[in-house]
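[Q] Does anyone have a clean structure-token version of this?
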Amino acid sequence: MTSLSIKISPKPVAGSITIFAVGSENETASFLGTAKSNALLKDVNLKALNFSGSAETTTRLSFGKETVGLIGVGKGITSAHQSREIGGAIGRAFRDQKSIVVDIPLSSSEEVIALLEGISFVQYDYLKYKSTKKSTAELTSVTVVTSHKVSAAQLKRIKVLAETLDATRDLVNAPGNDLYPVKLAQIISAQAKVPNVKVEVGMKAHGERKCHGILAVGAGSVRPPRLVKITYTPANAKAHIALVGKGITFDTGGLSLKDKAGILGMKYDMAGAATVGQATIAIAKLGLPVKVTAFLCIAENMPSGTATRPTDVITFRNGKTVEITNTDAEGRIVMADGLVLASELKPDLIVDLATLTGAARVALGNRYSGLMGDDVAVDALKSAASTSGELVWHMPLPEELFDIIKSDIADMMNSKIGNPTGGMLVGGLFLREFVGSKSAKDKTRLNWAHIDFATAANNDLAPYGSTVKGATGSMIRTLVTLAEHMGTQPKK
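[A] Here you go.
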């Protein structure tokens, strides 16, 4: 990512290109805001240009030595989310310019901030394995012409979010031959050298902590698994969030081997771990008054003579026993360890994040993430996602579906082979079994939410709005916003 210089100006300024807004009402395109009085645009016929003004469309007009950009905003920008997506379209279309000036109608500081986020979030390329490593992104300076104020702290937040989004994308895009459990743990540890952050990396400690799920999934690989614990402890913490992330650096399916199509893209199966790690780093860099403990459950799922077999039984730290019927349902096995460890800390909220099931994409498509859990936790995540502009959909956890994974010889199975009923929901029900209670006396389950973002963690289609192609960095913004929301609550 190019480091952007961001400025706010109440008056028009010079830049490589100035971008104006075009709206579309009743299929008629028209200039909006200062574009209506701009001398260069007075004779421009939008209909003759075949420029409709529909949202996120762009074009350029050359007037001798001066070039003007046009951005379609449809019926106008009416929300921060809309502004962020328009910003993404601007950032993608004009990233070849060194400096851009955006002079479009915005009605609030929130819309200005969102626009700048959108522009910043799409200045990303993954070029590590290209023989020619020159990026098409030349953009170094963005100025928004507006009377609305944006503080230095808000500009810092945009920068931190963009940095951690890109760091997550770099990790998730990396191929499995170069990013394996030990390497992922090393990279995250190095990046987490932030004030008030402590990192612990386990190996032998897995057995000592009875993290038999992570050990079982990693047993087939010559590359040993890792459990990474990141703790951010500010002096003024008002709440405690525990995050658990699935970190399968490559998923072959184990002995339940995937087919040649299904195995493609399985380097992305560590997106949950990368996301909770980078979200914790972002929260720490922003100095938010919320304690965060993140557990990154990292393993490589490979077939070999030492691999876990279907019908093996694992006993977890909380005493639950699981019959492994499908070694390709390994994510929930490593996540179970993380949830047990998180529960022992008795945090105010537990959030787990995983590319858990293909069923999530079948149910929700490419953009929405499945959100499950307890009412308080689900409401908190829905609010944070709405504020950050990320798409989640609350899915149920029907009690009757748990019968599908009851085992004859153990407490449960990790999967019911041949029964695809509610695959995403069954995954959530399985994970819920490893969330502990509030105390020995109060058996109420700790507040917990599960996000299955097998949908949104990787975009294998064309880029859109503020979302890039490939690894997206999905849910970083939501987790940071969640911490911000919890940091404004009275201290418990």
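[Q] Thanks! Anything notable?
[A] The chain has 13 helices and 20 strands.
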